[in-house]
Structures are given as structure tokens and as C-alpha cells.
Amino acid sequence: MTTASQGHVDVIVVDDDARIRVLLEDELLARGLSTLLCGSVADLTAQLKQRRASLVLLGMRGREASPLRQLQVLRQSGCRLPVVVLSADDSDGLLIEAAVCGAQELVHKRELLRRLPQLLEQYLNAADPEQPPLKDP
Fold first, then answer.
1. Is 106 helix (H, G, I), strand (E, B) or coil?
2. Which of 47, 96, 114, 116 is the most buried if burial means most Cβ atoms within 10 Å?
3. β-sheet with 83-87: strand ranges across
4. What was the pLDDT predicted at 135?
5. Residue 4 has pLDDT above 70, yes or no
6. Rounded to two decimals, what is the model's pTM?
7. In this structure, are residues 86 and 98 in contact, taking their beta carbons and an 8 Å threshold?
8. How far is Cα 33 from Cα 84, in angstroms, rounded to an integer?
């Protein structure tokens, strides 16, 4: 499901839980933002080859590190988009790992709806409008 135009989207939501994707989509649509929903970082990478975006909200389950490793690969391919990692775990170790892998911030999922207005203001205003779509290596 998507509300994004072919060329640009405000926020891409990546989470393996469809309920979380839809919840965030509803909240973002209510704020007048275009959204694109992805079930994995692989889906995100494919979408970024076709369109531009301003912000990525990347969900994780617990202490699962796979999305962070994939984010690191995405960064190495030239992606400069702001990425906010959403997790049920807010341990210091995960916070440091998220930063090392290229995330701007780690937000606990229970805090997300409360913090969403501030995150959108901070990262949508700072997005690089010249970020080109990703290219294959």
C-alpha cells in the first residue's frame, strides 16, 4: 500500500509487521505526508532505485541486528537519507550500533507517536533534496 507519487515520497516506513506499517501510515497521512510502506530493507533498497524520499523510519524487532547491517550496506551504497531506527529495545549497545550503522537516531516504539511531530520537523526539514535514487553497484 502506498500514497507516494512515482518520483518522491516524504516518508518511507520499513517494518516487517504490517500492523505497525499501517499505523504509521495512518498517522503520517493525517499529517498530510506522502508515504511508502516496505516490509524489509531489501524492499527499501529497491524502492530507492526508483524514487527519492525525505526520511526513512526503520523498524526492528527486539535486538535483531539484521536491519542495522542492511542499513550499513545501504549507507555504503551512497544513501544519505535520514534514517530513524524504531525498536522495542532501547539499550545503550543497540543505540551505539544503530549510530555506527548510519542511523540518525534510535527511538523506542512506545515513544514513537509522542515523538513523531518532533522527528518529522527535525528530519524532513534537514532532508537533502538532491539525494538521487540509488544505482546498482
1. strand
2. 47
3. 35-38, 8-14, 52-59, 83-87, 105-108
4. 57
5. no
6. 0.84
7. no
8. 16
